[in-house]
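go over both lines:
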Amino acid sequence: MAEKNDYYQTLGIQKSATDDDIKKAYRQMAKKYHPDANPGDAAAEAKFKEVSEAYSILSDPQKRAAYDQYGHAAFDPAQGGGGFTGGFGGFDAESIFESFFGGGFGDIFGTSGSRRAGPRRGADLQQNVQIKFEDAVFGCIRDITIQSYENCPTCKGSGAKPGTVAESCRQCGGTGQERVQQQTIFGTVTNVRTCAACRGEGKIIKDPCPDCRGAGRVRVQKTIQVNIPKGIDNGQSIRLTGRGEPGEKGGPSGDLLVTVYVQPHNRFVREGIHLFMDLPITFAQASLGDEIPIQTLEGEERLTIRPGTQPGTVSILKGKGVPNVKNPRVIGDLHVKLVVQVPTQLNEKQRQALREFAEAMGEEAEEKKGRWGKKK
């Protein structure tokens, strides 16, 4: 077992601290490290328990005197002491907190009721959908099928058989928590724990609903229509607020997160809101210039090729890209890279024409066998 920290150091006080100093230190540290203020933080929860343990000893004059004389050994059964056995043993840090502040953590901020039995938000749901490249650019509507829990239509979510109602738990009085007293060598210690009879629900269902078996919810399959906005990109998600699983005890429903996966296009490559493509042209078109049709996502456009266009030249068609998903009025451009194709199979007439063209450009042929495959 790890060695315990000194209780005075845990609370950040001196051994000469007064009762008021101890209370003030505990109040500050308990609020800081309480699990409700640090959800999911295991380190904070452990610190909260450590602070509560220190306060439970130092706030009691008899226990404090024993600790000042014997240290932690005063509460170690293996050394003749009692109370804490290997950690928290017989007391609940939450009960110390509640007895000190006069209620649960929520009461400090003006709320009331059992923290365990209060309203709970429904779970979020996750679903994927695959769409075509064009649908991502122009937007579309898709139907997706999900499975989730819904309030049971038979009992309307109560969990009780129709015609009956859930009764308030007699053991905890409907609070969902019960106080248990334990006798220790230092006197009576009161713990607050989840009610064993109702499991923290505050109600007992004697005649459960036959369809949901008292759970109040059933698993259903349903189809939801999703509006996919213009310009959405691969891997982006759409959040549908309140379309997840329903909350419990009046809590809000969770959300539905739809992640969109876009199929690649055989001609266009997307980078942000801009599109890129390669357009093959002939040597003659690059040399003499031309006006050729080009297929964009919105239809056919005419692209002008200037005479003397070099391989790799990029022509930009403004506004023929992708809308910005956050502002559809902003549209990207289409970048067209001109790729000059070199013929690989020529007949004699074509080769002769190229020889004459080369000579006209001032290129000289070799005496025996020219660079173009003809003897001089």
Remarks:
- The chain has five domains: 7-108, 118-161+215-264, 167-204, 269-341, 347-376.
- The first strand starts at residue 125 and ends at 131.
- The chain has nine helices and 15 strands.
- The mean pLDDT is 82.
